[in-house]
Amino acid sequence: MLNQKTSDLSNVQIEVIDTLIGFEEEEKIKSKQLASKRLLAARRAIEEHKEALRLAEDIDQDAWFGELE
User: Fold this and answer.
1) CA dihedral sign, ordered 55, 60, 61, 65
2) CA distances from 10 to 17, 22, 42, 46 (A)
3) DSSP structure string for 19-36
4) What pLDDT score does 16 carry?
5) What is the pTM of this model?
């Protein structure tokens, strides 16, 4: 049945359909890539924040010098 419908389509129609399908697939790939980039950026931001907190604790003068008093 699909072959029969396909044979009724002109080459131009088939080309347009193929182009649309290719465009949709390309948009899905771009969307996934953008989501991956956003996720990676979020992970990096979280790691930077955690590192800043660790450094702040390490540099905290009260913690270092409070024990000496």
Assistant:
1) negative
2) 11, 18, 48, 54
3) HHHHHHHHHHHHHHHHHH
4) 87
5) 0.56
